[in-house]
């Protein structure tokens, strides 16, 4: 008798098919675009050292660093407020994986490498390229590092005015020694105002006889609450008990979170926030009840002084957003070769590959924007003042908010599209894919929302009396020149040029009130134009089919959003009323 057939489903058998998971391979070696940018710009004497470190690190981020991030997501931070005997302890419990990240960050020199300046003007570019590989595997440890980088930069700039604070802290923030390494927080947001910091800050600072201050206040969001130090804003109280309202009343303070004894510096952690994403990251509400702090700005110059930190943390946000896109596209690309539907692999379905290609264009545009901003920052830091760098400094001031606001929105869209590329699996928590979307959503909110950064673009223009736009125009024009010499790129270069004329022309016609309302479309237009110019310039340099195609496709979108919407009457007085009527139709206002 013939043997009875083996049924495919029986007892422990779950069927023969197991879907191959998406795999991560070396994130540097497979990133041809990143390599091409770095090899183009980094000085010949440094490029091989930089690339060999990134090659090694590109592998490491797929191994222990990524495994750490999974443990961080599984073992989220907890707050123990009282001990068993009723003593207030405010003990923040973080996972060993989170703590390991601090060691890794120091050993890898993730902060140090920018301040050692071993690679000259390319040291920042090297740092941010390394962060770009690190971020998607770092489970938000990039957040304390961003703030640490911002604090180091701020203290470096204030070194001559506050040498004592610099001596005390800068070396710790920039060391490679894990035992010595300190991280910093950035406490700006209070209950009444995260955007309107000047209107919302209630924290007050009382000067002591030794020149230090005691701070009292309530900080509504403080990320990476396990920081060793923080930079924070407070309103100094004069000898009559009075404070100055608004931005002129705010000063910047340096504060060590713990006293020498290890006790908290008169700070209580009232609550850990329960968040949509960034769950690995301890974000707390803090009561500051007489903490000792040191003023590190002139009185009333707090916002201007902390803006050095904002520049760094906003660039880091751009790195995080662009790196999240790169990771999502890499995973989706790999999966497309492993998953089959309708009799063939997904990467043989033209519609699926078209979807991936659109994501790839966004990821490359964001990457080149991030790298370019990092390169400009490095030039400022190392080359100092000069006619070229002065113009570049103005452009840098303009493009930092553009980078942050634009890439944040892109990353949410690409992460969302990316999840769909995995079908139902993209929605399943233990694939670690949904986390990518959750962790990108925050990038549009923290470090200034999209609207606030669009208004910051106007601030930068106003502060320069408009000259920044002339430098921006010159920079874009120069970037387009080589592309105009390449047949396949010429038309796209002309589109960018025309869009720039239309957008700058439309902006020049607007009243300050209209510009406020149009700030977002203005910012988006400038970002698209700048990214278009960078992609075209790079395609003209590399001439690879992928770079040419990417630049062409980027330039097919509406690059002159501001003038398009202005031509449709969106910024008229009537339009303001229409918006209110539309939004509050049937609702009291
Ligand atoms: O969210 C936060 C941390 C999250 C975790 C970090 C993660 C990083 C990435 C990690 C990746 C994994 S910390 C909170 C961040 N908060 C914000 O970003 C605040 C958003 N709001 C704004 O940016 C507002 O525009 C304000 C607060 C700057 C507005 O303040 P004021 O006082 O009303 O503004 P003023 O009066 O216009 O500016 C005061 C001075 C001026 O200088 P002077 O007096 O010389 O003219 C401005 O030019 O500050 C100067 N200033 C700036 N300078 C203002 N903003 C800037 C700037 N961005 N750059 C240079
Ligand atoms: P609001 O200012 O109330 O803004 C609400 C809405 O109004 C937004 O859409 C905004 O764009 C819009 N809006 C406000 N003003 C204008 C305007 N003039 N024109 C047009 N639109 C406007 N802060 C810290 O200081 N330190 C931290 O470590 C920190 N960590 C954070 C971690 C997480 C996970 C999150 C979510 C936030 C964190 N923040 C931190 C706070 C963050 O920086 C603020 O939430 C953010 O700046 C927005 O401020 P807000 O929440 O007060 O929003």
TrEMBL record:
Family as reported in the entry's similarity comment: Belongs to the acyl-CoA dehydrogenase family.
Residue span, Acyl-CoA oxidase/dehydrogenase middle domain: 186-289
Segments traversing the membrane: none
Lineage, highest ranks first: Eukaryota, Metazoa, Spiralia, Lophotrochozoa, Mollusca
Necessary cofactors: FAD
Domain of life: Eukaryota
Protein name: Acyl-CoA dehydrogenase family member 11
Keywords of this entry: FAD, Flavoprotein, Oxidoreductase
Start and end residues of each Adaptive response protein AidB N-terminal domain: 25-157
Pfam families named among the record's database cross-references: ACDH-11_C, Acyl-CoA_dh_1, Acyl-CoA_dh_M, AidB_N
Ranges of residues in domain Acyl-CoA dehydrogenase/oxidase C-terminal: 300-461
Domain Acyl-CoA dehydrogenase 11-like C-terminal: 468-584
